[in-house]
What does this fold into?
Amino acid sequence: MTMQPYRRSKLGALPLLLLGVTALAGDGVNLNITNDGIVDIFVTVYDMSTNAAVVEHQRINGFATIPVSVNADATGRANISWTAITVDSRDRRCGHAEQTGLQNDASVNVHADSDCAGQ
It folds into this structure.
């Protein structure tokens, strides 16, 4: 008699387990944003899945790293774009890029080493 309730609870948990597995695709993806130069920069990182900034005008010292978390797309990967500008307004440099298909704990190098004209 004690076996029947045990079986029911195991079978009842199966849908919950399946729901937990499908929720993984919607979880966040943790990334490391690294200033790959010696000059301090201000960085803005956009989550392309939500079109929202996850980091705005964050100062990152030379060769320093900051962690960010963004939403995963349907494949469980992250898609971001970033912009950077040097802290020193006397020698203004800029940078920007998009990166897609990033896995959890991926490192993204950011830099501001281009002319800012037109930006």
